[in-house]
TrEMBL record:
Entry-linked Pfam families: HXXEE
UniProt name for this protein: HXXEE domain-containing protein
Keywords: Membrane, Transmembrane, Transmembrane helix
Keyword Transmembrane annotated: yes
Parts of the chain that traverse the membrane: 52-73, 85-106, 118-135, 155-175
InterPro entries in UniProt: HXXEE
Keyword Nuclease applies: no
Amino acid sequence: MTRRRLLLWLPLAFALHNAEEALTLARAFPVVRERAPALAVAVLGPADPGHAVVLTALGVATLLPLVVALWALARPASVAARWAVLLVTTAFLVNAASHVATALWLHAGHRTPTLGVWYAPGLVTAVLVNLPLTLHVLRRAARERWLSSRGQWRWLLPAAILLHGPGVLGAWWLGRWLGER
């Protein structure tokens, strides 16, 4: 597969993942709130944010990989664009790990008939689509030396964790703000 085609698969995979979340999050939200620590409940806001808020937040989160992929396609020689692609790719990896952790946390000692056993919104595509794709992209990027220095690689995981954590909260809050308008 060409690099160009691979870059197009990244936003498509994340859009598919976000579609799974959009279809399943509303059913899961009460369970998440019931089992979430008080700080998480305070950060998430009202008990039911409404489907429009969820869709807006997921839409915002879907745009970033698309913009980054288009930038890398338009500027294939740009180290910054390649690094941004690998940052988003590594954030997908962090996202997959967070979905597995969330499924384990949600269902630790519980059987939740409304969600099924060991399922959390987004888990299927995170594990079956995003995880294999991100590992493939990262291995290929290392093999083809998309980045020239170890220092550029070294900062991917910490930056991806920062992008994923505050990025998810930022998309959520932006979704709430836009959804209220």
